[in-house]
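Running co-folding for nicotinamide-adenine-dinucleotide.
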Amino acid sequence: MTTRKHKMRESEVSRNTEKTPPRISVVGTGYLGATHAAAMAEMGFEVIGVDSDPAKVAALSIGDVPFFEPGLPELLRKHVASGRLRFTTDLADATALSDVHFICVGTPQQRGSNAANTSYVEAATLDVARNLTHDGLIVGKSTVPVGTGARLRDLIRDHVPEGVRAEVVWNPEFLREGKAVADTLAPDRIVIGGTTKLSEAILREVYALPIAAGAPVIVCDLPTAELVKVSANAFLATKISFINAIAEVCVAAGADVSVLADALGHDSRIGRQFLNAGLGFGGGCLPKDIRALMHRATELGAFSAASLMQQVDEINMSQRQRVVDLAIEACGGSVLNKRIGILGAAFKPDTDDVRDSPALNVAAALHLRGAQSIVFDPEANDTARRSFPTLSYADSVTDAVTGADVILVLTEWPEFVNADAAELAELSNRAIVIDARNCLNTSAWTAAGWDVRALGRSSRAVSTDVYERESLLSVA
Ligand SMILES: NC(=O)c1ccc[n+]([C@@H]2O[C@H](COP(=O)([O-])OP(=O)(O)OC[C@H]3O[C@@H](n4cnc5c(N)ncnc54)[C@H](O)[C@@H]3O)[C@@H](O)[C@H]2O)c1
């Protein structure tokens, strides 16, 4: 095989930046890619989104977002209609018509390992490299283990067509599902790693609008850029597991973790966000990202980081068991044939994403113990049904609560927080609620007749459960 130098030459790249704006392809149009593609169109670029899933491409092409993300359908439709944004399954076509290629494919946890599966990123990058018809900048946005970018550079080296130059850089994404559009249009920072002077200039042109609006740009090497994203998620996960560990102490000591978290949050060095004790984190990012870091840190011999992440993961997963235990206790020692109203399936509000959702994990665990778990989520019923078809699904909060022996609030949707507690108490079989997100107004629910039990708030928990009290009363 011939080996060639593929560093982009200054003269050729500046041709691009001086004349027409770079045309953009976005490979992988899931939660990240679809949002990124629409946002790039909004910033004024010609964008082609590529996905290997024809159903996704068909939906996006007519302006339908195949998942729930507030504000995205409007943005997508606007730019599909304007002709600035289109979608295809034909990667060769998209590559030929673009100059900057964002890689936004998934990096799920590998089966049977904590490591990230980078095979989609490798395949997508290699496909772009092979199909280049002119110089291209390949920009990784997927969250990857440190070292992936360098490996990709080696991987594509001998596959870029003769006479064409390609560069691989990393530009990790920090968007939050539920706020993805605003986060992409106005990022709180832009990290670009492994760039030459010229590819940095191209990315500064791509992000000219947010940069002009004040978004700080951090230019760094490739491994630092990869690690920034993983470390951000590791820190957020650690914060959640920290407060859940403290919640355990609160229960043992008779303290209230929510009040404690408010008091901690006033310290500007700490901050109140990500200090809500409860069922813990889930979703398509945090769990797999901390496990991937655990795996990669171990490979690199950085054992402290690996053991810290192990603890964070253990604390987080044990919260799910705590909620299951609370449900069993609330049902008098067994959930067999008990009707359990499950409020929430998404891993957090404002999304229909149920990947590694703690809510569904709890619902399924109770179902396996013989409970009738009736799940309701305002947006995630369909995605949940696809992942857990054996669970039962309700069409409304009232359907889920009617006849329930206990209800569990597992996702803090406003619809649950603002529900009419008195009306629901009438509908339930026994008015016991487990507030696994510490999101309910305990006084209002208690006044409406509910027995409210919450994680980490011993002052709210009842010492004798309703079943026991009833049997004591009947003996008396
Ligand atoms: N979802 C988030 O909030 C978020 C935020 C920041 C970073 N990330 C990272 O972004 C990456 C993507 O996450 P996501 O949530 O969008 O995943 P996703 O599963 O929703 O989307 C990935 C898409 O890539 C497509 N795909 C896979 N291989 C392909 C290929 N060779 N060519 C074309 N399309 C291909 C899939 O069909 C799918 O539509 C992950 O690394 C994730 O960690 C996600």
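Result summary
Residues 1-17, 459-476 have pLDDT under 50 and may be disordered.
The longest helix spans residues 222-253.
Job closed.
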